[in-house]
Amino acid sequence: MTRGIGWYVHHQGAGHLQRARAVAGALDRPCTILGTLAGFDTAGLDTVDLPDDRPLGDPAFDGRDGATERPEALHYAPLNHPGVRARMARIAAWAERAEPALLVVDVSVEVALLARLLSVPTLVVRLAGTRTDRPHLEAFRGATRLLAPFPEALDGAGVPDWVRAKTLYTGFLGAPAQAPIEAGREIVVVFGRGGAGGDLADLAAAARAVPDRPWHVLGPVSGSGAVPGNLHLHGWVPDVEARVARAALLVGGGGDGVVALAAAQRKRFVCLPEERAYGEQTEKAEALARLGAAIVHPSWPSAAAWPGLIAAALAIDPSVIGGLHDPDAVRTCAATIQTLIADL
Fold it and tell me: How many CA atoms lie within 13 A of 335 on its CB side?
């Protein structure tokens, strides 16, 4: 009987589940998705739903428990939390029952270390940024291999050599390439689910500063006030890729989803990285700037800065960011997992 694999998904975003679904569909062995999956589309997937281990009533959980003392190899180990206890017990029970050939951990230091204690080989997902704190390094040390779901060219400059050597770079496992269509004059601004969203006053000021182009904003926007005629607020939409395909220019943060979308669509890109732990977005944005793949500004620009930023971005060669998209990334990732299991 072919031994299956498990794919543990973090509960902070749909991107983790999207990665798991995409790669699971390309594998030639069974794949079970483990995570707190309420509210996510899991149709067609084999799943193990895990109890929520976040602090009760804390939707902005940042992965740390706030304890004054804990083992140095851990980020999150609260005491007297029944959700944590039940979650880890369910993972252990699944591992004993399923005897998996591999567990992909996307992402959790604690689950990676638990898997090692359960004698299960792991492929630990390593997100962008420089994660050289003790817990991350111990999780990386205990992993069989590491998986970076982004191109090697965007890796952080401060990543230790031994971590790089242990890493399998898959490229973006997100947006598929869009068939080329004739772009219009639109500027499309994308705010994802993981950030603070847009501010209406800032967006209105930007649209007034570049009045000869329509601005289309996708995602959440807060605030109130007058909306100039060339500013269009769409909120959440199901056809983000199609709207971006029609744009002359994309504006967004430095998260994997937006950067992968810009690369897949070969879009001229103004990258406005948001503050994240471990420099996840800022380091990726710095790499984009070094490559000449995007125009980067460290925060939302002033109204006076927008005309120059737009002009600079429109002068970029879109083939540079397009070169970061690998259309075979999902298949390559699945084949890499198969090879890794064969070598264990």
Answer: 7
